[in-house]
Amino acid sequence: MAHPSEAGAEQFPSDRGEVPTPRTRVWRGGTLETYDFPVAQVSDYLEQDDTVVWVDLCAPQSADLRVISDELGLDPVAVEDAVSRHERAKIDRYEGYAFLNVYVPHIHDGELTLYEVSAFLAERALVTVRQGPGFDIDALVKRWDQSPGVDIASARAGYLLYGLLDMVVDLQLEAVQALDDEADEVESMIFDEAFAVREIQRRSFRLRKNLVALRRVALPMREVVNTLLRRDLRMVAPALAPYLQDVYDHTLRVGEWTDSLRDLVANLLDTRIALQGNRMNEVMKKVTSWAAIIAVPTAVTGFYGQNVPYPGFSSHSGFIVSTVVIVAGSVALYAVFKFRDWL
């Protein structure tokens, strides 16, 4: 892909929480020609030869959607999916274009947040729709500008979509790596008696919940990329096939990694329960041993406390005998329990 000119390489303003204006770009012959033009001019650029147009809508208003829908002739159902929250990750084909919905994960302080990103893919146009500023669109633009490989002039808008999917899957891999590190920390906590059981349970539950959420949005990515790879559908240029195949391999890795981590978390929970049971057995063993030792003086003093005559009754010798029996019996039991590692 040709690098943009010096003027075109200027940084776009970052999302700051307010509703940003639509961002636009147009390439001609693989070179960035202009950007930040009105959305109403999209159809004018598409009427020209050798152009590729990108439009980004962040938290779009109804007027923005109406304009881009008229410019590209989008189906109302697809537009509704683009603005609806919590749509599943998928790809739908319409006449002349395709609609995709993907999720970008972000983990901060152990909490997983999913940012929804939708896209309309035509032969020479890509429209991205974000529900909020959580997805770093500047990083995506930088990836388009700096990534070597297929020229945008030959790959058309499919190249832009490849950059988007590649970034999404890379971020999913980073999220899985972060969850893997979290699983290692939970494992260390389980075998460290200094940590409270409640804290281990809290982090284990949070980790399992994050894995389920990430797996739910990562697994459908296989279907999305696999659909784009189908040659009979001709949704992207053949030159993009090796690059999309690499993205597909990464989606498989994300799915397999989340499955293995889910099994690991289940094993960690089982291990925690087993260790807790073993610790309880150790405690019960020690309590029982001390109870047996204490039972010796209790039995002896109870016997000598009878109010009927017996050998040594009301005599100094009886006191000596009872004391010797108590000490000898207690020491003997302590020695036996210590030898058997019960104390």
From TrEMBL:
Membrane topology annotation: Multi-pass membrane protein
Primary location recorded for the protein, binned into one broad class: membrane
Localization per record: Cell membrane
Keywords of the record: Cell membrane, Membrane, Transmembrane, Transmembrane helix, Transport
A Pfam short name: CorA
Transmembrane region(s): 287-305, 317-337
Keyword Hydrolase: no
Region Disordered, residue ranges: 1-24
The protein's name: Magnesium transporter CorA family protein
Annotated source species: Actinomadura nitritigenes
